[in-house]
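User: quick one, fold this
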Amino acid sequence: MIFKHKLLPEKWNNEILTLADFEAFCAADGVLVREVPAESAGCYLHMEGVPVIFLRSNLRGLNKLRVALHELGHHWLHVPGADNSGKRSYCNRYGHLSKAEHEAKVIETCGVLPLPIFRTSEPAEIADLYGYPRELIQFRERVFRYYNF
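Assistant:
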């Protein structure tokens, strides 16, 4: 993965991130966050040069955190339009995983299931303790095997 962001925050992949962490990261990076009624769960784009993350207003709990971190992952990793695709936004529709969507999902997953917890707990324990869905834990296993973090 190529990171456009200077450095990922130290908490990422070391502690379970919260919505307060997400908000602090966005504030530090000058990213506006707006909650709106929308079809898409989340969207990252630049409006007149300002990075903006839109979150669907009815998201709650873990789902909201995952979408928020996913969109923040686009901010940290991708500049809209930089891949010469002409794409000016990244909107989360959880369909086909392009390279950019895969990378943002890695940011999301390691944000809610960081390495120290992943390395010291069995998948069933993680599911029981944190209520994480099986697909999240399985994806985290693939991230560890592929990237070794």
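User: anything notable?
Assistant: Residues 61-77 form the longest helix (17 residues).
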